[in-house]
Design brief:
Radius of gyration: 21 Å
Oligomer: single chain
Number of strands: 17
Structural class: alpha/beta
Helix content: 25-40%
Number of helices: 15
Shape: globular
Strand order of the largest sheet: 3-2-1-4-14-15-16-17
Distance between the termini: 25 Å
Largest sheet: 8 strands, mixed
Strand content: 15-25%
Length: about 400
């Protein structure tokens, strides 16, 4: 049993503020959250406890390709099979790939990320590489594999490969709606059964325009045909798309920093927010963006308010949920992660109360979203394992 005392905790789905709390952890899970109870334990010195982050969309296998493709359009930089990143990654041997993924996992843990959803290229071997790299670490990968035909040119798609990928992965993560014919997507949906099927949609303005011109429908509308569990990007979602997203309760993930860097546009976060469409947040491609959910939240908030010219167009508390609970729900791991509450995995951050981010602050949630950084993490407990202790990364990698 571990007991953490003297903390201010944001509890549950609504992030209710509970001051002077004690958190009791047993077998890696939160057994109790007590208020104004004197107990011996680890003194958190008035730190603010928030849920550990869930990074809803990543490409962690690209860690070895940092800064490749800067200044290039997304199609040239990352689109399979001939994008720059794919040509580069095919030069790596298995040992180099696993080492680079391990580095990416370290960066995630240093940033307070407890789980992530990864679009894992490279077929079955790609899935296994991430399993190997994450072995022994408390972080939880949700591995969304893909067949080699969605990764390398001239690879023949077979049902057997799809079945093998689905068996060892947590589902499928497909590059885009143009990767296969609709009957293949429907076959994936059937093979996946209760596992996740996720897909990039409406990421670049060129692909969005091409879909309308060639098919008379948006990429999002076309993707509805095979009922994916998760749609990623939606940078160019239309009013009609959003109406249907809301009606279906479709899980979505947005990646504002990478969209901005690649010149793809600004995701319509205000429109999602005002329509009551929850969105999770992903740091996306390690080529372009570090796995820093503080920066993702801050960017999402500022670009939305700037683009709408309305300082009330989005809410800090909503964004903190987007980086935690909504991501856990999108990846179907919210039974364990996404909130600080009794019964959940003990995965939480303790933010340093003496951080400059909180000095003179009148709104601590806004400070988390707009001012905090990984350097402000005093403690990170991930499924009961101490990752950061008193500001120092203590895992032996």
């Amino acid at each position: 049993m571990e007991i953490y005392t003297n903390a201010d905790v944001l509890v549950g789905e609504e992030l209710d503020y509970v001051p002077n709390a004690t958190i009791v952890v047993e077998n890696g899970r939160i057994a109790a959250i007590e208020r104004d109870v004197r107990r011996d334990g680890i003194d958190l010195k008035g730190g603010l406890v928030i849920p550990a982050f869930v990074d809803a969309h990543t490409h962690i296998g690209d860690t070895a390709a940092k800064e490749l493709g800067i200044g290039m359009q997304v199609e040239l930089a990352v689109q399979p099979p001939h994008g720059l990143k794919h040509r580069f990654l095919q030069q790596l041997d298995e040992e180099e790939l696993i080492a680079s993924i391990r580095q990416g996992l370290k960066e995630m843990l240093m940033s307070g990320i407890a789980a992530f959803g990864d679009f894992r290229e490279g077929g079955l071997e790609g899935v296994r590489a991430l399993r190997t790299a994450s072995r022994g670490l408390p972080i939880r990968p949700v591995i969304l594999g893909r067949p080699m035909a969605d990764y390398r040119a001239n690879e023949q798609l077979t049902r057997r490969e799809l079945e093998l990928v689905a068996e060892e992965a947590d589902g499928f993560g497909i590059s885009g709606i143009n990767a296969f014919e609709m009957d293949v997507f429907r076959m994936m949906r059937k093979i996946a059964k209760d596992k996740l099927v996720a897909i990039h949609v409406s990421e670049s303005p060129r692909d969005a325009a091409m879909s309308i011109g060639k098919f008379g429908r948006t990429e999002i509308q076309r993707a509805f045909e095979f009922e994916p569990d998760l749609m990623v990007h939606l940078t160019h979602a239309t009013d009609e798309d959003m109406h249907e997203l809301k009606r279906r309760g479709q899980a979505i993930a947005v990646c504002p920093r990478t969209n901005l860097l690649l010149g793809d546009g600004i995701p319509p976060l205000h429109d999602f927010y005002r329509r009551g469409i929850p969105f999770s947040i992903g740091s996306d491609n390690m080529m372009f963006s570090s796995p820093d959910m503080f920066r993702e939240m801050d960017t999402a908030s500022r670009v939305t308010r700037g683009a709408t010219q309305d300082p009330g167009s989005i809410d800090a508390r909503f964004l903190l949920r987007s980086a935690t609970l909504t991501g856990a729900r999108a990846l179907n791991i919210d039974r364990d992660l996404g909130t600080v509450e009794v019964g959940k995995a003990a995965s939480f951050l303790v933010l340093d109360p003496e951080s400059q981010a909180f000095v003179c602050s009148h709104d601590r949630v806004s400070a988390v979203v707009h001012r905090c950084a990984p350097s402000d993490i005093a403690w990170f407990i991930c499924s009961g394992v101490t990752v950061i202790r008193e500001g120092r990364f203590v895992l032996d990698l």
